[in-house]
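Batch job 17 of 40 flagged for manual review because the log was empty.
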Amino acid sequence: MRNNTRTRPVRLKKITEIAEKIGLKSGEIELYGDYKAKIKLSVLDRLKSCPNGKYIDVTAITPTPLGEGKTVTTIGLSLGLNRIGKKVITTLRQSSLGPVFGIKGGATGGGKSLILPTEDLNLHFTGDNYAVMAAHNLCSSFIDNSLYRGNPLGIDEKNIVWRRVLDISDRFLRNVQTGLGTKEDGIPRLSGFDISSASEVMSVLSLSASLKDLRKRLGRIVVAFTRTGKPVTAEDLNIAGSMAVVLKDAVKPNIIQTSENTACFVHTGPFGNIAHGNSSVIADKMALKLAEYTVTESGFGSDLGMEKFMDIKCRQSGLIPDCVVIVCSVRALKVHSGKFTVMAGRPLDKEMLREDLSVVAKGMCNLEKHIGNAKLFGMPIVVAVNRFDTDTDKEIRLVLKKAIDAGADYAVVSDVYKEGGRGGVELANAVVKASAQKSKFKFLYDLSSPIKEKIEIVARKIYGAGKVSYSPLADRKIKLFTKLGWGKLPICMAKTHLSLSHDPKLKGCPKEYTLPITDIRASIGAGFLYPMCGEVRTMPGLPANPRGARIDIDKDGNSIGLL
């Protein structure tokens, strides 16, 4: 539980002032009202000879369904760095309407560590998510139109891998039949919907280095296979150019501000449990040229967003991180002891809110594993304990000590929710020290390794699995993808975020279990293969008590319930 004392409203500055402060010129931004703007890609050309600043990735332990304050800490760290005189830019992903109206809510931080304007960011913002949805579904319509017009490409109707997307959670659309009605309404076939953040178009947008690169990647997207087993691409459908036109503004990063008027670039929103879970390469490259410190965030824990940040995003961008921050909380460690269960929308067990050092110590195995994961990449590590009102000093001291014992370079308390930048000064100083160390960065696996070997390296080293099993479907696809020359792509594992394993019920640090690979899909435009670990839903469903039921407009016309 948090201290719910109301704080003074933040006085927003014009986005032109925020942009000017970090070195952007007036002609390099496109205004969307007074408090948000897009940044032109020409900035990268102007700044190409400037050195890069420090690159900080914020990750976390395995979260509970409530979240453990990773975004709050990411923003608060940036505020803390600003407090100690560092020029800093935060780079984050855009919210999806699915979580906003589902369980999690928005992705704008909380307390005194916020990105603003909150309502804009949580809802329509500058339209990037809609552009992704439109580009994706435009491709879907071209597939069906090709079938309707005599199927000149020889597409196997039972081997179309491109579905449709929507930016809301709706389990009833996971599997659908299209083309029902008369002959004029199309050809009936089985299909379905994914959430927009799981679209390969979102990953392509996030990993592209330029508009030209975006266009090439869109053309490489594989949407189906012919009856002879040949891949059919968006280029083959003559739709990649139109998709690029739909996305030509979405490829530009967005600039807004934090609750202490520092700059924040928000761009793209791939999910960390399905896609690679990181903000855009373009936004990071811009920030690194403009600031001394760029603080970014990877989706969920080190087993998901951080591993993909290192092995996918850093490979493709050529950027090398300087430090990893691992966010944890006492309450999450208590859950990882196995004694407590947390469910969204239900009150916490009262016993969980009482001091219990033995339970905290038992749950520490989860934090220790995430520290070990970061060490596999040669990263300096700072552990940030996100303080809650119910935490006791003894519990926090125990976590700090055990984090250092497990190999963290620094372990500090983060009180940025209540104190903003002032509560992040200690964390900021630790990050400055850690990122000053000489980098020993390394990738987890070699791209030339066979597909199964790469999967098993991630499964054993990052997840702690004893072995990996493959369904007949996964085996067939691995053989096919190898034959097609896709075997040297990196791996983007899709699995639950609620456990280091594939099973959300396995808390703590499960070991020697069998990780099931039920399917493997190819995102050739994005440049990775993604194995499906167990039951993974690419279209979420709404919970029993969705957050959207508590969102409304008050008598003055203001939105309420979004925070």
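Reviewer: the log was empty due to a logging misconfiguration, but the result itself is present. Residues 1-8 have pLDDT under 50 and may be disordered. Unflagging and moving on to job 18.
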